Structures are given as C-alpha cells and as structure tokens.
Amino acid sequence: MTPLSRRGFAAAALATLLAGCGGPPDRPAATAAQESTKDGATASTGTGAAPRPLARSVPVRLLIPAIDVDTPLLRLGLAADRSVQVPPVTAHDQAGWYRHSPTPGQVGPSVILGHVTVGSYGDGVFRHLARLRRGETVVTRLENGARAEFAVTRVRTVAKAEFPADEVYGDVDRPELRLITCGGPHTGDGYRDNVIVYAALSDTAR
Length: 206
What we know:
By secondary structure, this protein is mainly beta.
C-alpha cells in the first residue's frame, strides 16, 4: 500500500500519540517540550561511508540489546478515525511497525510504536526506552532475510501537547528509525509525555 503523504502521515501519527498509551493527558503541559538528549543533540553514525539504503521489506523483529528488547513486530495501519493504530494491550506485549512508513533501511523515517505499560499486565515492551543513549544499537530483521542496524542519535521526552510531528515524521534524506512510547508522569488515565528515540542506519547485512 502506498505510504501516506508527509502531511497526512504526520497528522495521523499525531492523533494517535495524543490518544495512545492510556488516553490523552488531563491538561496540556504548561512548559515547552523538554529535550533529554544524551551526550549532545546531534550525532553521526560513524566516520566511514554511510551504508546503502535497503530495498523495501517488512520488518519482522526488533532487538535493542541495551534495554533487553527482543520482540516480534506487528503491522499497524490506520484506525477507523484515521489515527495510527497502536499495538493491542495484551499480556505478551509486542511492538508494532506502522506500515504506511518506510520499512527499516529505506530512505525516510521508519516508525515503530510500543507500550510502556499494558494495563493490569504490567510493564510494556518499551518500558525502558528512555534509558537508551546515543550510539547504542537498534536492530531490525526484515522479511527478506536482511538486517538493518541503527545507531541511536537522540532521545527526547516531550509533552504530548507539544509533539513534534513534522520533525518525527517529516522527510529525511537517509534511512532513519523512530521508536515511540509514552512517558513522564502518569495522570490517572494515561501518561503526560511521549518518549521518542531517533536513530540512523549504521550497518546492513543479508
């Protein structure tokens, strides 16, 4: 299926992230989005030549060794209200790839969403996402047998009311990855903030 336009993609994703992980915040945050970049706000994936982008292939697994994530990936689409789906709340929580975004390794921002908590089941698959640091590795395994490896470039915690949709979902000229969950204070029916991890392609293999 053809990916959404940049504008449509950003709008749909923003609607989801304002409503996901237990519902919208009780009230907008009073302050601007707070960036929690580790070791600097900009990053390089190394001194060597950038890896070539990969052909489109659906991601089937996500591994983040630094925070012990090893999860199959669901395919997420659009809900009836045109917001982006989020993974279902289940005891065996899994992350999900938004199928209207590029696949990992293609040029553009590939988007993966996961829960920080899953209701009465406890911790979600992305419970420790905010602990990631610049340079740490995120690996996606693709349906065609390829592997796309990314290096974290930035970690942000932002108020949902200030979610930077264009920055997260806008066009980029290289393969990048976005990992998104909820974070910050729990407001009773949800979390106030979103945690966003930015990563850039650092290696590929077949």
